[in-house]
Amino acid sequence: MAELVDTTTELLQQLIRNECVNDGSKESGQELRSVDTLQGFLEGGGLDVQRFEPAPGRGSLVARIEGSDPNAPSLCLMGHTDVVPVNIDGWDHDPFGGEIIDGEVWGRGAIDMLNLTSSMAVTFKNLARTGHKPKGDLIYFAVADEEAGGTWGADWMLENEHDAVMADYVLTEMGGFGFSHGSGRSVLINVAEKGAGGVRLTVRGTPGHGSMPLGADNALLKAAEVLRRLGAHRPTPQLDDLWVGLLDALGLEGDMRAALMDPERVWDTAVALGDLGGKMLHACSHMSISPNIVHGGQKINVIPDAVHIDVDIRTLPGQDADYVRAELQAAIGDLADHVDIEVLSDRAASRSPQETPMWDVIESAVHAADPTARVHPGLIVGGTDARFYRPYGATVYGAGIFSPSIDMADFGTRFHGNNERIDLESLRLVTDFWDHIVRGFDETGRP
User: Fold this and answer.
1) Nearest Cα to 346, choosing from 320, 368, 326?
2) Contact call for residues 57 and 27 (beta carbons, < 8 A)
3) Domain extent at residue 370
4) Residue 385 sits in the same domain as residue 333
5) What is the mean pLDDT of residues 74-89?
6) Residue in 309, 345, 315 with CA at minimum distance from that of residue 327
7) pLDDT per residue over 3-34, tens digit each?
8) From CA 247, how far away is CA 242, in angstroms rounded?
9) Beta-carbon contacts of residue 304 (< 8 Å; ≥ 6 apart)
10) Best exposed site among 8, 93, 125, 412 by fewest CB in 10 Å?
11) Whose CA is closest to 256, among 176, 175, 181?
């Protein structure tokens, strides 16, 4: 399938060059450029495609191969086309050049996730060109606005064009990165992601004249103490099966594993590890509390009577709004009577079951790339478009495959970072991966 890998590479380069940068504003993204590219590519293989444009320039594309059995489960391959902004000064090469340098394609989106979006499209077109007839419907969904919350992408599509994109199984980012360790190589396929919520804490005081601060009920000083307590608070760790799967994937054994499985020691162990590894371990085992914005005061000579603290909350599966409120009140302690808690946004954590025919097919596809690899369920600490599908009953996995040259550290630094790039071997592996998934699901995964 060498010609397919070449095609994946060329399509990836073009998607990078389309420069669909999403800065969160309604006018950014302009994913319609990549819709044009993908429509021209897919229609060249005889496929009919649908275009959707909920806002000017914010385009998504859907293509479908009808299944032979209307009762068979459907499968959607979903990749987003938008990318995050760049700081050009931090790059060694043009972030939108799509150049091949030393066997790697450079450019914003190469890892996140245009490599998957392009390889999915190439596999989809090849299946149609060769006359493959799936049992259930096979859908290709190139979606806009993933990088800024899905308002003009997956969220809008499932609300307004549900039948066009709904499927029983959905495969999307982010999974397939591996870990090499003494007992072999492990690959994470993500089955869950943390929830995200915004909470505003309003710390109340009493206004007064700034010239007489002694003993004043200064909301700003109280807010400073609230911030200190939030930073020091340690939510109860959740060391569940996903946590065990992560430790297995990392190949952690002995004293380190024992420390990370101990609720009394896991926090300090993550702190001691530091850097990306420690941060990831902490985020995967705890609800996180990150106060990121503070507003307060009206005038320099007026003691403030209210200070607002906006807090980013990331919850693990099973942790609901009551759990969050209880943790915040525990952190604030005896100042709780002086603090109002307002929920600004509340996106629940989501999880898909692992015991499915699709999981078995994914394991087979990973083993086809590396017969020695072990597959483990993983948790995404950020957010993907998977969260929009799971409430509708879809089983969604963050899937893919990367070459052993890309480890977790490489993935973490390139993801939204400078000098984002992907090696050609990973493009070969992932193009084969999707073909194996679709054909394998038809052969063994569907009734």
Assistant:
1) 320
2) yes
3) 2-181+350-445
4) no
5) 95
6) 315
7) 888 999 999 999 999 999 999 999 999 999 99
8) 9
9) 205, 207, 218, 219, 220, 296, 297, 298
10) 93
11) 181
Integer distance in angstroms from the first to the last C-alpha of the chain? 29
Give the relative orientation of helices 424-440 and 357-369 as an angle to the nearest 10 degrees.
Answer: 140
Q: What is the pLDDT of residues 351-369, one digit of tens each?
A: 999 999 999 999 999 999 9
Beta-ladder partners of 364: none
109 and 8 within one domain? yes
Residue type, 215: G
Q: Which residue intervals of 286-397 are DSSP H helices?
A: 321-332, 357-369, 386-389
pLDDT at 273: 87
- Which residues 6+ apart lie within 8 Å of 73 measured at CB? 136, 167, 168, 169, 446
Question: What percent of the chain has a predicted confidence (pLDDT) above 70?
Answer: 97
Per residue in 134-186, pLDDT (tens digit) is: 999 999 999 999 999 899 999 999 999 999 999 999 999 988 888 887 777 89
Which amino acid type is present at position 223?
A: A
Place of tokens 């530091």: 274
Count CB neighbours of 296 within 10 A: 17
Q: What is the mean pLDDT of residues 404-430?
A: 84
pLDDT over 70 (residue 447):
no
pLDDT in tens, 227-247: 999 999 999 999 999 999 999
Regarding whether 64 and 22 lie in a shared domain, the answer is: yes
Amino acid identity of residue 180, one-letter, is S
Report, as an integer, the average pLDDT of 61-86: 95
Q: Is 191 inside a domain boundary? A: no
How many domains does the structure of the chain reveal?
Answer: 2
Q: Which two tokens stand for residue 57?
A: 């320039």
Q: 355 with 343, same domain?
A: no
